[in-house]
Write a sequence for this structure.
């Protein structure tokens, strides 16, 4: 079973949604990414070049959230997962996009979409 590197609660402002006001005004989105990675080479070398640099990963994910608007958080999640799986050491990812200010006229705790991508479960 591969090791995991997790980046949770990454917050960025985007203009995603099906309603005009969402795309115009924007809102915060929260991203959780759990990467499947063999961390043994990095542990042995103690070199950040042998692992996934989570600071660089965060920059790539924020760029997607802040970038081109989409209607659905399913689409956003797919684009974010692609950033993660583009890294050659990443075997797979569980990527969740939370939309805490979703336009729902009722009190709610969370709205999110989770996608699983990669070669192995």
């Amino acid at each position: 079973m591969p090791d995991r590197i997790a980046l949770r609660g990454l917050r960025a402002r985007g203009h995603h949604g099906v309603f005009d006001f969402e795309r115009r005004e924007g809102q915060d989105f929260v991203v959780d990414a759990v990467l499947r990675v063999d961390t043994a080479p990095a542990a042995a070398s103690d070199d950040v070049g042998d692992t996934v640099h989570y600071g660089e990963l965060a920059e790539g994910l924020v760029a997607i959230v802040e970038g081109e608007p989409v209607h659905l958080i399913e689409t956003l999640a797919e684009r974010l997962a692609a950033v993660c799986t583009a890294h050659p050491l990443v075997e797979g990812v569980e990527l969740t996009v939370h939309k805490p200010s979703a336009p729902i006229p009722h009190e709610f705790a969370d709205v999110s979409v989770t996608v699983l991508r990669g070669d192995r479960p």
Summary: Strands lie at 3-14, 27-37, 90-98, 112-118.
